[in-house]
Input
Amino acid sequence: MQKDNDILLLKGNEAIAHAAIRYGYDGFFGYPITPQSEILETLALLKPWETTGMVVLQSESEVASINMIYAGGGSGKCVLTSSSSVGVSLMQEVIPYMAICEVPGLIVSVQRGGPGLGTIQPSQSDYRQATCGGGNGDYHTIVLAPCSVQESCNMVGLAKELMMKWRTPVIILSDGSIGQMMEKCILPPYTPRRTDEEIRRQCPWATNGLGLKGRKPNVMTSLELDQALMEKRNRELQKKYARIQQEEVRAEHYHTEDAETLIVAFGSAARISMGAIDNLRQQGHKVGLLRPVTLWPFPEKEILELASRMKRIVVVELNEGQMLRDVQWASQFRCPIEFIGHSGGVIITPDEITRKISEMGKL
Amino acid sequence: MKEEIIISGFGGQGVLSMGKILAYAGIIEGKEVTWMPSYGPEQRGGTANVTVILSDERITSPVLNTYDTAIVLNQPSLERFMPLVKPGGTLIYDPSSILTPPMRKDINVYSIEAMAEAARMKNGKVFNMLLLGGLIKVRPIVSVEDVVEGLHRTLPERHHHLIPMNEEAIRHGMEIIREENKA
Output
């Protein structure tokens, strides 16, 4: 039974801050940028260092934040940072280091319009940055895309589980609208932070000096001068990614059972599409939605299966068509694929989606 | 039950906090709620608006094209949002900041002299509570009691002594709202 004070009206950003404390994260390191500054602000307001002992630090830059995550995760701690588009670009250097060294860590990316400084309005134009990696080398990050305040909260818990299970950086890909809007949020009960003893047992690979007696020091480096050895490490990483693709795909269906047109959309675009689907169904159009919850691993099999029985797929995104490529590829073009989108911080409305799909006519 | 509301006016008028208190009252009544502000490089005196949705069921799109109820507190807001009120819906305006009164005959129109009344009460800060009172009088989507409980939850404890004054303003707002047109 939840207490009343665990049900709050929160912004998506605030929910992430509350969730980080309650799920027992050890530290947050971040630098302010609109539209995600409430994460750092809320943490400063809640002062978790006085209660759970969680560290909250405003770093000098995004590059510093991500290096602090690399170090924190490397020592077996559960840590996170957050930023927005142009700030996340600055972090790209270190994410591949974390991937190859198998260091857990959470990066919350609250997207705004781009490229460059762009606008401070909501956008989804960092889909490729998150899923294809803005950094170098053969690596992936698990990418979770919340579509509500409650899901923003829950995903902080899911990210902790996944990053520790798979020893990999995880990205929560939110955006300005989910970060700034307020909704009812049921906060989880407090999970205590892990003790040093628990970290020693769960993370024998960590470079924290715990239990050094009787074992060799752990070394963490991305540098491997022997190319054959580097390839071996890459191959091992690929095996792990294959298992993640097998086990961790998540997607939500909305009226797909009898659908003839399938919208594929994630995050805020998925929420807006659901509104359009309600309108379209009232007009007699059989439209459904597949919402990838994990953007990597991508729900390829589900899209292929759905594409085989749809008359048309419409991809809706707040960008110029980024996930579109993944949908085209996953569907193997078994049905025609259309795109509806806006970029630069312009938000699509349910009516626009409704009108454009109505105008596409029968197939 | 589902009510889609837009509240639009000048920054600093308490538009966003009025929406927040309304949303909190919805949560207390076990409803799903969404509060979506316009945000940007905005300032006191600029335009500000917030979309509030209260529903018994899961809320799909937080972005809307049309509204059940619009509360407009200046002329630009009236011009922008009056055409977007659904036929049979409700429009509430404050005549002190509206030059051309709303003309639509297919919606319910109410006026509330909140600004003048707040000035008369020598307390500009209760302006938005007068409006909130007017709103829940003509659209009883949440109870006064739950709105007051919402105030308890949104205001920091050091401001709780102000709640009786706000409650009085809400109840006063319920009395001073006037019907201008019935759809």
About this structure: Chain A touches chain B at residues 7, 9, 35, 120-121, 176-177, 180-184, 268, 271-278, 347-351 (CB under 8 Å). The CA atoms of residues 194 and 325 of chain A lie 41 Å apart.
